[in-house]
Amino acid sequence: MIEYRNLRIALLGGGSVGAQVAELLLKNGDELASRAGAGLELIGVAVRDIAAPRTTDIPAHLLTTDATSLILSADIVIELIGGLEPARSYILQAINSGADVITANKALLATHGPELFDAAEQVGAQLYYEAAVGGAIPIIRPLRDSLAGDTVKRILGIVNGTTNFILDLMETTGESLESALATATALGYAEADPTADIEGYDAAQKAAILASLAFHTTVPLESVYREGISSVTLAQVESARKAGYVIKLLAICERVTDPVTGVEGVSARVHPALVPTGHPLAAVHGANNAVFLEAEAAGDLMFYGAGAGGIETASAVLGDLVSAARRHVIGGPGVAESTHANLPVLPITSVTTRYQIILSVVDQPGVLAEIAGVFSDNGVSVEAVAQSAGSGAGPLARTDDSSSTATLVIGTHEASEAALAATVAALEASNVVSSVVSVLRVEGL
Ligand code: HSE
Question: Both 425 and 316 in a single domain?
Answer without folding.
Answer: no
